[in-house]
Amino acid sequence: MTLRILVADDHPIYRDGVVTSLEETGEFRVVATASSAQEAIRLAEQKHPDIALLDLSMPGGGLSAVSAIVAANSAKHVAMLTVSEEDENVANALKLGAVAYILKGVSARELRSILKGVTRGEAHVSPALAAKVLTIMSKSDTNTSTSPLQSLTKREEDILKLVAKGQSNKEVANALDIQEKTVKHYMTIIMGKLDARNRVEAALIAHEAWGRVE
């Protein structure tokens, strides 16, 4: 199945390069390009792409585009493609509903792989950036007396530990000898219990409580 993508970036040469990199294998079709947050919001409403791939620093602000697109449910998934490694930008993008935070240094092959994972329900953030987000979350957490992790069952805890190590649903299923759809079901329950928007937030909560998961 060809994945439909909206690419929003205010640098035409870079944007065109991303479009070419995505479409060259035939797995993706870029249905629209935008150069500002307002344009991205409008085009997402018109095209309803599988993924809205947004730059953080475009006119109008990438974060405002994330917020509006997620609120309107005008794209199935929202991902950031940016040069910013600022911890607050990463944390805010994830809190607003982005499921991937990708740095512009990635290769075309890696970008395609990450985006295909996003459509399978896999969130993405590099380990270095995840550590920064964890620091922000730790500073902003004013209620540390009771951990939501205490409400997890043993099976849910086992699954979350593997997810926190960066494993995909398929890898978790293989490790625990269960079906992939069962892992997805458990992750829905886990995210609900942790009040996490996506896998990244769930994994960060686990890291905060358990430290580095081995």
Overview of the structural elements:
The chain has 214 residues and is α/β, with parallel strands linked by helices. It folds into two domains: 3-140, Response regulator (Rossmann fold, 3-Layer(aba) Sandwich), CATH 3.40.50; 148-208, Winged helix-like DNA-binding domain superfamily/Winged helix DNA-binding domain (Arc Repressor Mutant, subunit A), CATH 1.10.10.10. The chain is 54% helix and 14% strand. It is built from ten helices and six strands; from the N terminus they run βαβαβαβαβαβααααα. The chain has helices at residues 12-23, 37-47, 62-72, 87-96, 108-119, 127-140, 154-164, 169-176, 180-194, 199-210, and strands spanning 3-8, 28-34, 51-54, 77-82, 100-103, 124-125. It has a six-stranded parallel β-sheet with strand order 2-1-3-4-5-6, sandwiched between helices. Strand 1, helix 1 and strand 2 (28-34) form a beta-alpha-beta unit. The longest helix is centred in the C-terminal third of the chain and has 15 residues, at 180-194. The radius of gyration is 17 Å and the shape is globular. It starts with a strand and ends with a helix.
